[in-house]
Amino acid sequence: MFRTLSGRFLILTAAFALLAEVLIVVPTVARSRLDYIEARLEAAQIASLAAAAADAPLDEALEAELLRNAGVYNVALRRDAMRQLALSSPIPEPIHATYDLREAGAWSLIRDALVTLADPGRRIIRIIGQPVQDGGVLIEITMEQGPLRRAMIEDGLRVLGLSALLILLVAALLVLAVQVLLVRPIRGVVDAMRAYAAEPEDARRILTPTATVIELREAEEALRSMQLQLTGALRQKERLAQLGAAVAKISHDLRNILASAQLFTDRLEETDDPLARRLAPKIVAALNRAISLCESTLAFGRVEEPPPRLARVNLASIVAEVIDGERLAAGDQDISFSEDIPRGLMLRADGEQIHRVLLNLVRNARQAIAATGEAGEIGLRAWEDDEAWWISIADTGPGLPPKAREHLFQPFQGRASKGGTGLGLAIAAELIRGHGGRLELRRSDETGTEFVIRLPKEDSALSPVADRPPLPPEAAE
């Protein structure tokens, strides 16, 4: 209950009600004490005036009756400059305290009332006050505190009961208002969210704002907007998933067809027809590109790449294998390869996935240089610091097209070369992210392109990625 809005509001209401009771009852008790004392002072003044008006001294029985009716033991009235003891009787106890009401403020009255309530003993107190109707300079009485305290308690309990009923009524109305104006609409929003979460594709479950409270209305409208966007995104995702499944099936069958066509095309190189012999390599190259596209589409169409199997791998051997393969693929093209990899540099990574990443990047660089028909160079460097291993893949090609830089690492959009699919960079970036690292483009202009890979050394692979990779040791010097 205490964790609900209604329960907490009820607790706050009870706390404020208790505070209100204190603010009401304490001044009321102080006022009750003052009224009681002023009534005793007035009654004592009347008794003293009656005694003064008598022609003869009062007998003890009449004086005792006047004092008993006034509720005091002694009365002293100062009318002019002389203080006169008008009525008196024996005092059973010594005077415990004296209170002067002539210049008493609100705080002093409240303090004296609390002191009176806290003292249940039989005390005799002296009261000094101002006579009513200009009946003298001052009046002084002695009285017992017990009846005063009982009268204060009775008045306090009566006011406490009445105020408690009123506060409980107000609290109940407030709780009911909160239930109607806040809790019920919030529960409606929560129920709508649960229903939508069960079937987010069903547009009928999208919330329709109905709240009249401005804040709740804004929350409902914001939730509706989010649901509309999410439903649209889910529909688009479902369409893309279906399209991806269809493309994967088509790519699989098309790859087999193209592979068969490639086998037939290989026979064209053996024919004596000059035209066929001249066109055969171009047809083979086109078929190779088509098969490569199908294989890349199938690879990207998987639900997700398997998590890397981390182990200690030697980077130099991986780089050497990649360069050897691409050097053979370059053939007679004037493309040179260089590597600057410390022989003892060991990575904690999945060797197969790192090989795929480097192969994609180096192959893109080779194809970019080959497309220019000019000589070029591809260089790989690696270094490490206290937090990560760094790998740089740079080339002297023409640089990435503006559209490729704008949609870098986005499949089918960030094409690094003409005729490419953009899947290579997307897959490479995904594999590096699986290691907790980052693949980023450091530069790309007319002098060439450089990609940098950062692989963190931490086991958790959750350390923040630096915005800019540090320079290799030789460049820093």
Textual characterization of the structure:
By secondary structure, the chain is an alpha+beta fold. It has 3 domains: 5-169, no CATH class; 214-298; 307-476, 2-Layer Sandwich (Heat Shock Protein 90). The protein contains 11 helices and 12 strands. The strands form 3 sheets. Strands 2-1-5-4-3 form a 5-stranded mixed beta sheet. Strands 7-9-10-12-11 form a 5-stranded mixed beta sheet. It has a two-stranded antiparallel sheet with strand order 6-8. The longest helix is centred in the middle third of the chain and has 54 residues, at 145-198.
Q: Which descriptor suits the 3D outline?
A: rod-shaped
* CATH architecture term of the largest domain: 2-Layer Sandwich
Q: Spans with pLDDT under 50 lasting ≥5 residues?
A: 460-468
- Classify the helix fraction into a percent range: 55-70%
Mean pLDDT: 79
CA gyration radius, whole angstroms: 49 Å
The topology string of helices and strands comes to: HHEEEHEEHHHEHEEHEEHHEEH
CATH superfamily of the largest domain: Histidine kinase-like ATPase, C-terminal domain
* CATH topology description of the largest domain: Heat Shock Protein 90
Structural class, by secondary structure, is: alpha+beta
- Specify the number of helices: 11
CATH class call of the largest domain: Alpha Beta
Terminal residue distance:
67 Å
* DSSP strand count: 12
Sheet of most strands: 5 strands, mixed
Strand content: 15-25%
InterPro entries: HATPase_C_sf (IPR036890), HATPase_dom (IPR003594), His_kinase_dom (IPR005467), HisK_dim/P_dom (IPR003661), HisK_dim/P_sf (IPR036097), Sig_transdc_His_kin-like_C (IPR004358)
Organism: Rubellimicrobium thermophilum DSM 16684
Biased composition (Pro residues): 467-477
GO molecular function, one term: phosphorelay sensor kinase activity
